[in-house]
Design a protein that fits this description.
The structure is a single chain. By secondary structure, the protein is α/β, with parallel strands linked by helices. The protein has 2 domains: about 140 residues, no CATH class; about 170 residues, Ribonuclease H-like superfamily/Ribonuclease H (Nucleotidyltransferase, domain 5, 2-Layer Sandwich), CATH 3.30.420.10. Strands 6-5-2-3-4-7 form a 6-stranded mixed sheet. Strands 1-8 form a two-stranded antiparallel sheet. Helix 4 packs across helix 7 and helix 9 runs parallel beside helix 11. The longest helix is centred in the N-terminal third of the chain and has 20 residues. The structure holds zinc ion. Zinc ion binds next to loops.
Length: about 325
């Protein structure tokens, strides 16, 4: 990606206009819209395909890009720098460039929603590695001007639903998944934790949810409310939008199981997902999976607040 960014800035991305400059006369037509001449400015900003990708990204965040000089990356670099979002145009350009190459060389079409989902997955990865703190603020729809405290309420599931909180823990060294099942009285019924090998945070979350559903199906609990703290995962399961390639298999498996049970999935703030968070972290340090109905003391304590319906406080700034 760094190399790709450097190539864009030095006109080394072989779009048709650059090839022409270098004396290679090729008939130029943008592969994505089939309407215009291909140039990097067109491909990454002006093309209808690029606009759709940007639109999806912007509508899924608080990005305010009004003051960015669109259309030419090199001239607008200072604008991007000023709003601390310098890596963003390169990330978008990278995935558009991949989509363009797939179409040109393999004749395979990637929908713009897929490209936007890949950009989002990449951003989530950066957020997880804390490499790009500024984007965290805009992607989580947090208003930086008005810090506020939200009470995060936990709801008990209505009878006969079982509530399942799942989570994934991901660092560049190891990953783990965990989940806890509770009934309508908030009584903990079963928990699991396991180490896992995954590509990124989103995949870890997806794996956690899949295993929770698999366990539930095996013990024949068929009414479910799943709570996860990844809004991206909720989106991928409830929308028909396509998921990043490495998540596809998980979404497919999850969707297959949920056709057989009564299922709802809801987003949960991390603060309200502490027991699952704790289990996922423990799971990442294990050498094997643990599934048990005997709830250990630390986990019991973490679930106490839920029984008493004490809200967590979440501070947004
Ligand atoms: Zn185009």
């Amino acid at each position: 990606m760094v190399f790709f960014s450097w190539r864009i800035l030095n006109d080394l991305i072989p779009t048709d206009d650059i090839l022409n400059l270098k004396g290679l006369k090729v008939p130029s037509r943008c592969h994505l819209c089939k309407n215009n001449q291909e140039s990097s400015d067109h491909l990454f900003f002006r093309c209808n395909f690029a606009r759709e990708v940007w639109n999806q990204l912007i509508s899924n965040s608080n990005l305010n890009l009004l003051n960015v000089g669109w259309g030419n990356l090199k001239d607008s670099l200072r604008d991007w720098q000023e709003i601390n979002l310098m890596p963003l145009p390169f990330i978008v350009a990278w995935f558009i460039w991949n989509a363009r190459n797939k179409l040109k060389h393999e004749d395979s079409v990637s929908p713009f929603s897929f490209v936007a989902a890949n950009c989002r997955a990449y951003l989530h990865k950066l957020i997880n590695w804390k490499k790009f703190p500024q984007i965290l603020k805009v992607m989580n729809k947090i208003d930086t001007q008005n810090p506020m405290v939200i009470k995060v309420r936990r709801e008990k599931p209505p009878y006969p639903f079982i509530k399942i909180n799942t989570d994934g823990s991901f660092t560049n060294k190891k990953a783990g998944i965990g989940g806890i099942f509770r009934d309508h009285t908030s009584k903990a019924l079963l928990y699991f934790k396991a180490p896992y090998i995954t590509e990124d945070a989103l995949e870890t979350e997806a794996a956690g949810l899949y295993w929770a559903l698999k366990i539930a199906k095996d013990v024949k609990w068929l009414c479910f409310i799943a709570k996860v703290d990844s809004s991206h995962l909720v989106e991928l399961i409830t929308d028909t939008s396509s998921s990043p390639w490495h998540i596809n298999q998980w979404i497919y498996r999850i969707k297959k199981i949920i056709t057989e049970i009564k299922f709802q999935i809801k987003f949960n703030y991390r603060e309200a997902n502490r027991p699952a968070n704790f289990l996922a972290l423990e799971g990442s340090n294990l050498s094997h999976a643990v599934v048990s109905t005997i709830i250990p003391l630390p986990l019991q304590l973490l679930t106490q607040g839920d029984k008493l319906q004490i809200p967590y406080l979440r501070i947004q700034n």
